[in-house]
Write a structure and sequence with these properties.
Blueprint (H helix, E strand, L loop, with lengths): L12 E7 L8 E6 L2 E7 L5 E5 L14 E3 L2 E3 L6 E3 L4 E3 L14 E2 L1 E4 L2 E6 L22 E7 L3 H7 L3 H6 L4 E12 L2 E14 L2 E14 L3 E8 L5 E10 L5 E9 L5 H28 L13 H10 L14
Antiparallel strand pairs: 1-11, 2-3, 3-4, 4-9, 5-6, 6-7, 7-8, 10-11, 12-18, 13-14, 14-15, 15-16, 16-17, 17-18
Length: 325
Amino acid sequence: MSRRYPFPSYPNGWFAVGLSGDLPAGGSLTCRAFGQELVLFRTEAGAAFALDAYCPHLGAHLGRGGRVCGDSFRCPLHGFRYDGQGHCVGTSQGGPAVAGLRIGTWPLRERNGLLLVWHHAEGRPPQWEVPVLDAAEWSAMRVERVDVRTHPQEVTENSIDLTHFSELHGYEAVRVVDPPSLDGPCLRAAFASSRSVESLGTAGRAEFVFRVEVWGLGYVCVEAVDSVFGVRSRQFALATPLDDERVTLRLAASIVRFADPALTERILGLFFRGFISDLRQDIPIWENKRYVEAPALTRAEGILGAYRHWARQFYSAPGDAAATA
C-alpha cells in the first residue's frame, strides 16, 4: 500500500521500462520497476524477454556482467543459462540444465517503439493489450526521462483534467470535443483549445485538437493537430512505478514527417520542447500535493469522477482502490 495514497503503489497493467532501440540484438538492459530489479535481453534472432535480475542458483545479479548466449542469458558468476521462459537450460562449462530450476519472468511487449512489461499483483497473465499504432509516416521519437515523487494514477488523471490546462499551462477556451468513452482498460476523450505560439519565427494563436487515449494507468498517448503548420503530433506520458514513492516518467513525442528531413527535425524539436515545458510545470504539483479522496468537483470536472471509478479496475483488491469521487 502506498504511504501517500489510499491504493497500492503498483497498479496492474502494462508499463514502459525502456525503448526498443535500447535493446539491440544480443544486448541486455537492466531496469528498476515495481520495487524490483529486472533484466531484459534480446536474442541474436531478435526476440526480447524480461527476467528477474537475480540468479536463483546463488543470487548473482544477471545484469552485472551477464550476457546473451544464443537464445538464453548467462549468469556472470557460474554460467547458469536461462531461456526467455525462465527455465535453466545449461550450467557452467556446457554442463546440463538443473531440472526444475527457474528464474522469474515478466510478460514483455514491444509496442510503438516502447518496451512494455506486464505487472499484476496476483501474478495473472496479460488480460489486455496496448494497440499497435501506424508508424509509417511518423518521425523517430524524442524522449526524456525523469523520476518524480507521485503515483501513476495521478499522472494519468492529469491527461483529462481539463481545468488545469488553462490555469497551469496557459491554454484558452478549453472545451470537450468528444466526451470520455470508457471501454474496459481503455479511456478515450478529445478536447480543443487555443494558445499563443511562436514557431520558426512566426508568432500567432494556434487552435489545437487533442485526442487522448489511455490504456491502464501507465500509458497515455495524445494525438494532436495544430492550425499553424497543420502538424500532427503524438505525445506519450508513460509513468512506471519505481518504488513506493516515485515513478519513472518517460515523456516522448513524434510528428508526421515533412518531405524535408531538416524541417521535420526543427518542428519536432519545437513540439518536444513545448511538451516537456508543460509537463515540468506539473512536477512540483505532483510532488507536493495531497490526494483528496472525495473532492468537491465542479460540473466541468465531472470527468475526473468517472476516471477514478474507471481506475479501480487496475487494483487487485477492491478495498485498496481509489474511492469514487
